Amino acid sequence: MLVLRKIAPLLILLWWLFLLPTAPGRCGTETKNAKTIGPELITNGSFEQTFPRSAEPWTTLAAPSTGIVGWRVSKGDVDVVTSPSFNIPYGNQAVELNGWYTGALSQQMKTEPGASYLVTFALSGGWENAGAVRPMYVRAANTKQIYQPVCTCNKNSNSMQWNTMSFQFVANSANTTLEFGSNTEGYRGANIDNVSVRKLDVPLKQFPAAATPGISTSPLLDLPTTEVRLRGSIEKAFNKGFIEISAEGKFDPSKPVSKRDFVKWLVKLKGLAPASISESPSYEDVPADDPYFPFIEAAAKAGLLPEEDRFHSADTITRQELAQLYCIFSGMHDAAENQPVEEVERGLCFSRGTKGNTIAYRDANLLDEEARKWVSYANKAGILNLCFGLDPAGTTNDENLFEPRKRLTRGEAIHLLVSLYDLN
């Protein structure tokens, strides 16, 4: 008995060192035993309360709509889709994160700074074009996670495949905004339903430190490597929901821009309503089932595009083609077309030096004959300087080149449009 009394303190110490850390609530096994506690923090998580409701199988709500009770459309627009046209896992309604535009939906919750929270939601990749990826993201506090659901049902909205997803974050204030957003272009995106947020009974910082694929706190990962003069416009357009980024968080500003993307951005920034898919196409190679049809058709009907039989929407845009597009969508087609020959040639020059002598672009002879008037007018309007950094005073273009067949980049295109339409 005396021996037992002497070794008892040692036994207690050993128990404390080796057994207690693996008990529930300590940092050894709390991940397996973590539980949600407290009340549900999300209002109308299955989107059943929506006003107004359309007689169609979907209702489109544009930012800053609060038509989904408890939620706000925070950018672009979203569709509230309904059963029986869509197989909805919880209740009768779900939300597609793409209406006509790339959209986002957000809700503000009461949270405790430093506390951990678990978000769960049902996710489906959509119902058109089987095999197509429909990237989307979830964001709360300083954490963002990207998901890439795949369409599996090929134009059958009643065979959508839903999966339950989870997302964790640590609150850093008394109010936290949870946002679900699309990273998908066009008007078919990921669908969500049955959103829930509950507090966790263990600190998130004690969870395993393994990285979760897709998490990024900086949504525009290639912005720091972008030409400085373009960064502000790209960031502004992204924050306003006018452009999308890839699942890897990239906008690819240095890549050539396609005609269809340029027109889509133009329509958005001018505030035009996308055309109805019931309208007869203006271009024979852009049919009504083309994902870009609503934007290209809207621009064509508004007189913003060339009147031709085919549009070749996947083609990229040369610098001289951009000059023509600018003259048309800015309403200066006739003014550019009717310039006297001497005025056209004068517009292909810029001033250099203190004496104000003029020098033509050294490669002006490479311009297509029809393009000379467009480039001349765009140059006089300051568009070449704005878009390509070609300074009319010659201070940044020492080689005197316009490079008419060089491709317009995505960064240059969005910088031009944001600058022209003063996106605030």
Question: Which features characterize this protein?
Answer:
single chain; 424 residues; alpha+beta; Jelly Rolls; 2 domains; 7-stranded antiparallel beta sheet; 5-stranded antiparallel beta sheet; 11 helices; 25% helix; 19% strand; disordered N terminus
Structural description of this entry:
This protein is α+β, with helices and mostly antiparallel strands. The model is unreliable at 1-6, 11-32, 205-218 and 392-397 (pLDDT under 50). 39% of the residues are buried. It has two domains: 58-206, Jelly Rolls (Sandwich); 223-421, no CATH class. 25% of the residues lie in helices and 19% in strands. Strand 8 (136-140) and strand 9 (143-147) form a beta hairpin.
